[in-house]
Design a protein that fits this description.
By secondary structure, the protein is α/β, with parallel strands linked by helices. It is 30% helix and 21% strand. The chain folds into 4 domains: 55 residues; 135 residues, Immunoglobulin-like (Sandwich); 245 residues, Alpha/Beta hydrolase fold, catalytic domain (Rossmann fold, 3-Layer(aba) Sandwich), CATH 3.40.50.1820; 90 residues, no CATH class. The strands form 5 sheets. Strands 2, 3, 4, 5, 6, 8, 9, 10 and 11 form a 9-stranded mixed β-sheet that branches. An 8-stranded mixed β-sheet has the order 12-13-15-14-18-19-22-23, sandwiched between helices.
């Protein structure tokens, strides 16, 4: 600030001399002389520099010395990806605050692969020149972190068989609070291991692991499917009774951790234990274990849909007294689960008797988030040269662009690209993309330029649910009557109402039979606003009552 004031005062004196001298000489002549003055140019440069410095704020350099704690060395592997998270929220661990659409303050992520880091070695990090970096609003390096209070945490990602950097077996440091007023060298120790998921304990909640013969053959190794089962409150009082069954495709990234939140929600669980709740079995399908969050067949993830329908579902229903009848079998989900459940109903129309899909991921590629995948040339920019948004607030304030989101996913990916980021676009690419000659998914678009690959679009089009219904209506139309319910809020935070609108437009064109699908749009509602476990169970109970009339 002092620099700016000093420069401003000197500029004022120069201007005063300039205007005083203009009284005696012509304006044009004098301004040329002043402009040629060395002192004028120096003052001008100094003022611009000081304003720039003032606006940007003072910055500092961070360096790190990182070691592995003795108690975790036995679990440490020398190949992995090291993450450094720098955030400003004191209430959460920085490694958990990595969803770009929810970050509004200064936040930085740095990542780099190491292949021969031995646990007894101290890693010295002096600069970030060869690190992948992400910040929401600006470019960042270890040399230009602004003044402020930060919360810093490191994570060693060494489990590449599970979705996400916070997978079991990965190692992280404790969070450190840093008041950054000067350049510093920080000492960190990787000391904490992420433990395997543990399901809440209750007599009505069960964890099911089942070896899939289909997926094991495809992968050439033992592969298991996993689910959590919520039994109805009177289950043990009626040992000979069979129950209707609901298959929930878990939203987000398919983690069963969400099931524990239902148990801890006393409002829901007290209702579930009451006589008012319907006697229905709920199966929460885990998509995190094998990375196929949609539970559909995939070039890169194998025949997950076939395995679910022909192996896992029969196993569960035999184990927990499901009715083993399509008439009393339903599926549902929100967001990721909204797409997955709708896909299961469409791909296997005779296996389920109804889908309740809320705020589904894009179900029409003509309205893929904010663009038409079949016509667009670039995922970053629209035809007018403006960046495409990918997330917004309820009142249409744009939160983040596709370009910035992809940069974020590039940092998470071991390949420094979004393809193996284990996040939104990376997961979509892995499941929907064709397998390339290198054994990896063929990218839908270039990770740096955003240019879309038309051939990759052809592969993705197999999962365009709006087109699938239209192209297969003659075969599946009559089997879907009375089975489709879709909900979307008109202000969905990820523009997913666009895809639902496209899906509806396709349905309205269909004949023989005309579709009786129920598609509801709620004005001014956001992503998954109307979704809840209780609402779905009550919808299923209503349908069952109507069947029994």
């Amino acid at each position: 600030m002092k620099i700016m004031i000093t420069a401003h005062n000197k500029m004022q004196k120069t201007l005063k001399r300039f205007f005083a001298q203009c009284r005696y000489q012509s304006f044009n002549t004098k301004i040329l002389n002043i402009m040629k003055s060395k002192s004028f140019l120096i003052y001008l440069i100094l003022l611009v520099f000081s304003i720039k410095t003032y606006c940007q704020g003072k910055t500092h350099t961070l360096s790190f010395k990182i070691s592995v704690a003795e108690e975790v060395k036995a679990s440490f592997t020398q190949k992995g990806r090291l993450f450094i998270f720098i955030g400003t929220n004191p209430d959460v661990e920085p490694r958990m605050q990595i969803t770009p659409s929810r970050i509004t303050e200064k936040h930085y992520i740095f990542a780099k692969n190491f292949t021969e880091w031995k646990s007894n070695e101290t890693l010295s990090v002096q600069d970030s020149e060869d690190w992948a970096t992400w910040a929401k609003t600006q470019e960042c390096t270890f040399k230009d972190i602004p003044d402020g209070t930060y919360y810093i945490q490191l994570l060693w990602d060494q489990n590449f068989e599970r979705l996400g950097i916070n997978a079991a077996g990965n190692i992280y440091s404790k969070k450190q609070e840093i008041k950054l007023t000067s350049s510093q060298t920080l000492n960190f120790k990787l000391s904490e291991i992420i433990t395997p998921f543990k399901l809440a304990e209750h007599k009505l909640i069960k964890l099911v692991n089942h070896k899939s013969d289909t997926l094991s053959r495809w992968w050439g190794k033992p592969v298991y499917e996993r689910a959590a089962v919520l039994l109805p409150s009177k289950y043990y009082e009626n040992p000979g009774k069979e129950y209707p069954i609901r298959y929930n495709v878990i939203w987000g990234f398919g983690s069963l951790t969400s099931v524990n939140s239902f148990v801890n929600d006393t409002t829901f669980f007290n209702w579930w234990l009451s006589d008012e709740a319907p006697q229905i079995i709920t199966v929460y399908l885990d998509g995190e274990l094998n990375g196929n969050i949609y539970h559909v067949d995939s070039d890169n993830k194998g025949p997950s849909g076939y395995s679910l329908i022909n192996e896992f579902i029969p196993y569960i229903e035999n184990l927990y007294r499901g009715t083993d009848s399509p008439a009393t079998r339903f599926t549902d989900g929100c967001s990721t689960g909204g797409w997955g459940s709708l896909a299961l109903q469409l791909f296997y129309p005779e296996t389920f008797n109804g889908v309740f899909s809320y705020s589904p991921d894009p179900v029409s590629y003509k309205q893929f988030f904010t663009f038409n995948m079949y016509k667009a040339k670039n995922i970053f920019y629209n035809e007018f040269g403006y960046q495409r948004p990918v997330a917004r607030t309820r009142i249409d304030n744009l939160i983040i662009s596709f370009k910035d989101w992809v940069k974020f996913e590039n940092v998470l990916g071991y390949s420094d690209t979004y393809i193996d980021s284990d996040r939104n676009l990376g997961v979509l690419s892995t499941i929907f993309g064709a397998k390339g000659a290198d054994g990896k998914p063929i990218p839908l678009f270039n990770y740096e330029t955003g240019i879309i690959d038309a051939k990759a679009v052809e592969s993705w089009s197999r999962y365009d649910l709006a087109n699938y219904v239209k192209n297969n209506w003659g075969t599946i139309g009559s089997k879907l009557q009375g089975k489709i319910y879709i909900w979307a809020g008109t202000q969905d935070g990820y523009f997913l109402n666009n895809g639902v609108l496209g899906f509806e437009e396709n349905l309205l064109e269909l004949e023989n039979p005309k579709s009786d699908a129920i598609i509801e749009f709620s004005p001014n509602k956001g992503h998954c606003d109307n979704y809840s476990n209780r609402r779905i169970l009550e919808q299923i109970a209503k349908k069952l009552d109507e069947m029994n009339k």
